[in-house]
Amino acid sequence: MQSLYLIPLILTMISGIYLYVCKHKKPVLDLVLICTCVVCVGCTLTLCFANSDLKIFLFKITDDMALMFKVDVISKIFGLLISFIWLVVSIFSIKYMDKEKNVNKFYAYSLLTLALMLGLSFSGNILTLYIIYEFVTLASMPLVMHSKTKESKKAALKYLFYSLGGGFLGLFAIISGMIYSTNGGEFVLGGSFNKELVSSGLTLVQVAILCGLIGFGAKCGAFPLQSWLPSAHPVAPSPASALLSGMITKAGVIVIIRLVFYVFGISLIKGTFVQYTWEALLLITILLGSTLALLQNTFKRRLAYSSISQLSYVLLGICALNEDGFVGSLLHVMSHAFIKVGLFLVAGVLIYQYNIHQVDEMDGIGKKAPITMWCFTLLSLALIGVPPMGAFVSKWFLAQGSLTNGLAFFNYFGAVVLLISAILTACYLLPISIHAFFPEDKKTYKRDKEPILMVVSLIVLVVGIFAIGIFSGYIVDLIVKNIGGGLL
Amino acid sequence: MDFVINLPLFTIIIGFVGVVLTSFLKRKPAKIVAIVCQLIAIVFGILVLIYTLDHGYVNYQLGHLKAPFCNQIRFGPYEGLLSTLVPLVMLLSLFAGDNHTHRDITEEKEHSFYTLLNLILVAIVAIIYTDDIFTGYVFLEISTLSSVGLTMIKNHGRQIAAALRYMLFNLLGSGLFLLGCIIIYGQTGYLSMTFIQNVITDLFNNNNTSTLPLTISFTLVSIGLGIKSGLFPFYYWMGDTYGVNTTTASSVLSGLVSKGYIILLIKFIYRTFGIDNVLKTDLLNILFILGACGMIFGSITAIRQKVINKMVSYSSAAQIGYIYLGIGLGKVGLIAATFHIITHALCKPLLFSSSNRLIDASGKKRKFENLIGTGFADPIAGACFTIGALSMVGCPFFAGFISKYLFITDSFVDISTPTLLLKAIITIAALVVSTLLNTIYYLKTVITIYSPVRDNKVVLKHNHYDVLFIVSSCIFSILIIALGVFPSPIIEIIEEGIKLLG
């Protein structure tokens, strides 16, 4: 069993490099890409049913810096989610990348990012986590600047700047985690922080944690480091922006979960200025993202702003520092991954088929491409929080977590903000569907043939979001059974 | 093995023999003599390192008189490590820039290029080994004069202006340094570092005498050496000095010569003044602040450059700032500072040699807009530039990451007083800002050189195959990555060396 979970890491990395070096033509490229993703899904699925927690030491850089991997429930959830979503997006990109150049490089960087994201979720201590986090940024940057136009390069630099900058801000937290924990920053549920090692009062460590939360929040677009998302997403090819928005932003979530629950423990944060500041920043982000999304006319840009607010829902759940909030944020990670990837893929279909980038060009598109737009409508309903789809359950838990987070004023305010943001979400997504199906002019639209691979991957995502909603009881049980009590 | 204690002196003597030989030989034999001298210096350095790791430090006295009446050499693992590094980097940058040396320097002058290189080697190695402040001064001047010669070796207008400016700054620095030395001699009556330290400690512990002259001398020495090595705010000579020179010269000047002055300052602080006495003054705090400013302003100056070479040159100012920051953190920070000296000495030659190759590929145009796509025209130079840039940015698994990690952890070793806590926080803030700025200009360059060419008029020249460049840049890259992945042996040697330093 030990070797099993290194397989997806090493295999994806090798096939990524292979695709980059040997410049194959299209069918071979697709075959390698899909096979690798399928193997990844298989391996992570098998891992999920392995009971024991696994640990592997790679090597030591110095005596107190070791690289190690470890698999626990968080790794399993994220690992499975990442490899599954990657498979779906890869199937979509087979068709989409027909019209692009340098396909092999795109696939190669996509696979490298997959390997690193899996590594991120499997990493066993804080140093490994940090190193892989930095490499995720470097490997995913070429995805943003794939078209190599001036805007895309600028956006990629912006992404790099925000992510690496946030990362270096977070290095403060990482290093204090390493110095002040009993086991050099290995992940233990409940944290391994040792107060006696701190010589100068806890405030310094708390400031370090806040720096970490803001710094790693940059990856998931948390205020004040959010502005790379709306620049980077529109310029990237659609599969890449789907991955960026749906999965790569979750790298920040993984790091923050590990920092808060597995290294420092919540006692350092609960009720202090750290929690208040963080909560305030997150609420600002939620409102900011939803409001700005309303004002955008570029479809992908609107989705990017929506991501900013949705990812802050996830962080809001973590920030509540209680079981409900945590369950809610993990559920919302899954739901948001399915929904946002789906929405970006819809944008991809529209760009591929009709070269539509703006929202106001989408009149009557529902008559031309009904399946795509039906998927879009269902996914937007899910994002708004209509039962029985996934995001309804997660928002329920998030609201509950927020109400019981014990912060004066912010507990009710958080729930209210969630409600307002849900209404705003309806405002920026539903009019698109309405105009798409009920155009103002009375032209007759002819139904076009929709590319089968693209439609299939969209339908898979829609089915997935229903499944998450319906089977959410099992997922909640799983999380509560394995993690529940250990958090507090 | 006891014969090894003679080797430091032999290194210096053989270097001088090499200087004499190269000054009248033709260019080919002169080059061979220079290479042989450097190889011998590498081997001797390694032997000294191994010997001192086993036996501790060695006091080696020249002549029959006992210290303080004779000239003394003192060496431990710290000196051994640095005196291996210097000829190694020099040899590799000689190979990496060999092609450009032939192109840039006229044939009748080329032998004196090797003479100057050998002089610099001797001077830095002597600065590393010496235990006598006046010997330190003499070799400081030798290093200054030969580096000025190296600056104007290409011999056209801009170079001569740059060399004049460089010389003015350097002589100012040397003058301040000499004044500091004179005051020390007047106050203590010795030239030997060990004896000076004893007297200074006595003076500091004796409450009746004023320590003002000594404080002034500390300041003069530090500022003098700071000006010479390009500490903030004295770094504006860097752009022309490093940026418009031939490859080997800029690599050696920025990678080694400026480090030589810093090593001398470290020796002064730890061997001559004594760290405990220095801590009673504010010297280290001042160096710390200047270092932090240098990290940020050096990077800002680098961002504003339009020419790749000048950008790489001004980034040296930022890196020198890192080293001074480490020195300012006291004994714990010295580990990080020394590690960064090694990192920077390995990265800078790599960056200079690869960026000069990229300039060749663009048809000798040096602006950023002309460099588009050159990474494809010269793949090896592109890859090497990327490796150097990633290390400078502090990407994990490269040497630069380890030194940044060391800076942060070292600053947090002791935060018991408010000053130390403040220092730790400033360290982190300065590191974050300067890393971000580094990211902007280095990775932007990397993206530029790997962008496809859209303008049809641009014709990229495919450089001819240069074995020496490939081999030496590969060795540089391997060393950088090896230091990033397995830094523990080097860190242990540095720790051991600092323990024995004083």
Describe the structure.
Chain A has helices at residues 6-21, 26-49, 73-96, 103-122, 126-144, 150-179, 202-217, 228-235, 238-248, 250-264, 273-295, 299-319, 323-354, 365-368, 370-384, 390-403, 410-437, 452-470, 472-482; strands at residues 54-62, 65-71. With 488 residues, chain A is mostly helical. Chain A has a domain at 270-488. In chain A, helix 2 runs parallel beside helix 4, helix 3 packs antiparallel against helix 18 (452-470) and helix 13 (323-354) runs antiparallel to helix 16. The two termini of chain A are 31 Å apart. Chain B has a domain at 282-502. Chain B has helices at 7-24, 27-55, 77-96, 98-104, 107-129, 133-151, 157-188, 193-205, 212-229, 238-243, 247-273, 275-280, 283-303, 308-328, 331-361, 374-377, 379-393, 399-411, 418-449, 467-485, 488-501; strands spanning 58-61, 72-75. In chain B, strands 1-2 form a two-stranded antiparallel ribbon. In chain B, helix 3 runs antiparallel to helix 5 (107-129), helix 7 packs across helix 8 (193-205) and helix 15 (331-361) crosses helix 21. The chains are: A mainly alpha (488), B mainly alpha (502). Chains A and B meet through strand 1, helix 5 and helix 6 of A and helix 18 and helix 19 of B.
